[in-house]
Fold this sequence. Notes:
The chain is an alpha/beta fold. It has helices at residues 10-22, 61-71, 85-90, 93-115, 119-124, 157-176, 198-207, 227-240, 257-271, 302-308, 316-329, 331-337, 340-349; strands at 2-5, 27-31, 51-55, 75-78, 126-132, 180-185, 187-189, 212-215, 221-226, 246-249, 254-256, 284-287. It has a 7-stranded parallel beta sheet with strand order 3-2-1-4-5-6-10, sandwiched between helices. A 3-stranded mixed beta sheet has the order 7-9-11. Strands 8-12 form a two-stranded parallel sheet. The termini are far apart.
Amino acid sequence: MIFVTGGAGFIGANFVLDWLANTGESVVNIDKLTYAGNLENLSSVMSEPRHIFVQADIGDGQQMAALLAKHQPRAVVNFAAESHVDRSIHGPEDFIQTNVVGTFRLLEAVRAYWGGLDAGLKKDFRFLHVSTDEVYGTLSPTAPAFTEEHNYEPNSPYSASKAASDHLVRAWHHTYGLPVLTTNCSNNYGPLHFPEKLIPLVIVNALAGKPLPVYGDGMQVRDWLYVRDHCSAIRRVLDAGKLGETYNVGGWNEKANIDIVKTVCGLLDELSPRKDGLLYAQQITYVQDRPGHDRRYAIDARKLERELGWTPAETFETGIRKTVQWYLENPEWVANVQSGSYRDWVQKQYAE
């Protein structure tokens, strides 16, 4: 039995589905079900006996303690986080509460639970904290990619809150001996991605005939990681990672945002062409850049390959095609996540 927090969100839900498909172990899936948590992501496993869903907040230490005592997991994988930079700029407090205070309270509940286990179970227990490459700050166009030794230099309320949570996890290991692992991943993409992030937003807006908003000059560079590759990396780190260590997870796919948008447009031209015969790229609209927008992230994932033998299975070309096809094949999912509050948010954020 393992615990997964944030398991109804984009990466967490993909991890739960992947775990149930690839292992024989059960999952207690804990999610607060904020706007980006979506039970529809888990519809295929809601009646699966090995999947136990609990709506709860990791910031509720008493409830976390009760759930740990009841289910006796051998590991906790912590995805629970507020994760959108733009939202953190407009409202940073939610990010402090979930990513900093929530992580602290979860760590304390887990520490008490772990401390009460017998010696064998205590030795085998793991707490895996899922974080982001954004804690490292930004890179110049020619700088080497982020390694695990790179200084933390977060530039947004979101990345600062995740950096704080990483530091808490590290401190709970060094001070209390809690058996922790941390992963810092690059930009994920793939099925079940809430359409506020770049790739799903472009797909959804393109099909709806709406503008495709591109910040500034569109030359911000990110390393793109297919979400199911990320899931396999987390499984590998949980299985064989060295206690107290950090592992960077990347896709070896550095791409400028404008190139991502044009690639998605090209796939849509092929797979679902516009009825008027025009190209989707004609919908691209440049909008004012967001404050403090980091220019480049890049992950050096050689430690994970060298020590644990993990490499991504998907190239960007194979992963992005699978992603576009998934959105084309699941219009009901897209329609159901586009609530009134989500539409209001997009209109506010990407107003010309």
